[in-house]
């Protein structure tokens, strides 16, 4: 279908943990982006595809923008701004209860430097956490800091205001044939989505015990005759001591992670999944170009 259709790219930007992944998943109506309470969990520019009337909105879910320290951090921040540069519309997410933080101010300053590149809308998220007067005051303060084309008050988690934002985005997109089939919700390969699911379960289970020094790769994907899939994944850690944390006493941690990831993959694929996880030590993976490629990042962006 091409006649009278619209399509375009929308970049969601903001500080880590502002709710970009939750908003993407709410818009798309399916879980396509990793969501945890730890910051910096979105590493690659995951695209979620959402249909609204005759419009196809392709969301570019960027990593949170923060002050980078390591190569991985620098590659993530470059990916975030790259995602914004490629978009037709940019949506800046600000947490209502945190307001105009130093980090948000830095993002607004960077937006000013590229003003006019494309329309930028403001979405004040987590509005259920503050009183109405504070919201109005924050909206005024932010709109004085940058000329946003529209301001939306939303709760990505509860769904408040999300329909209004989605309808507005659809109305603003250019006329264009759709980029993806109508029933496609993400353009990540299934192997990468499966790796993201396992990484989310690891992050949720391990909390503060393990920093961001682990990554998951889908090594093998075998389609079986009975319709099920066998998925073999490797969890890479940078220190020997981290292996024990991931495995847990008597292997109980890895079993719980595997069970949670397998259940979600089964639901996502709509068929049985047999998941096999291995933990391997790889001290230098943070400096290996192929690990970045696997995550959809450019190794050179970390320089």
UniProtKB/TrEMBL annotation:
PANTHER family: GTPASE ERA, GTPASE ERA, MITOCHONDRIAL. Belongs to the TRAFAC class TrmE-Era-EngA-EngB-Septin-like GTPase superfamily. Era GTPase family. InterPro entries: G_ERA_dom, GTP-bd, GTPase_Era-like, KH_dom-like_a/b, KH_dom_type_2, KH_sf_prok-type, P-loop_NTPase, Small_GTP-bd. Monomer. PROSITE patterns: G_ERA, KH_TYPE_2. Residues 40-44 are annotated as: G2. Keywords: Cell membrane, Cytoplasm, GTP-binding, Membrane, Nucleotide-binding, Ribosome biogenesis, RNA-binding, rRNA-binding. Residues 6-175 form the Era-type G domain. It is found in: Cytoplasm; Cell membrane. This is GTPase Era. Residues 125-128 are annotated as: G4. GTP binds at residues 14-21, 61-65, 125-128. Residues 14-21 are annotated as: G1. GO terms for biological process: ribosomal small subunit assembly. It is a peripheral membrane protein. Residues 61-64 are annotated as: G3. Its main location: cytoplasm. An essential GTPase that binds both GDP and GTP, with rapid nucleotide exchange. Plays a role in 16S rRNA processing and 30S ribosomal subunit biogenesis and possibly also in cell cycle regulation and energy metabolism. Residues 206-283 form the KH type-2 domain. One of its GO terms (molecular function) is GTPase activity. Residues 154-156 are annotated as: G5.
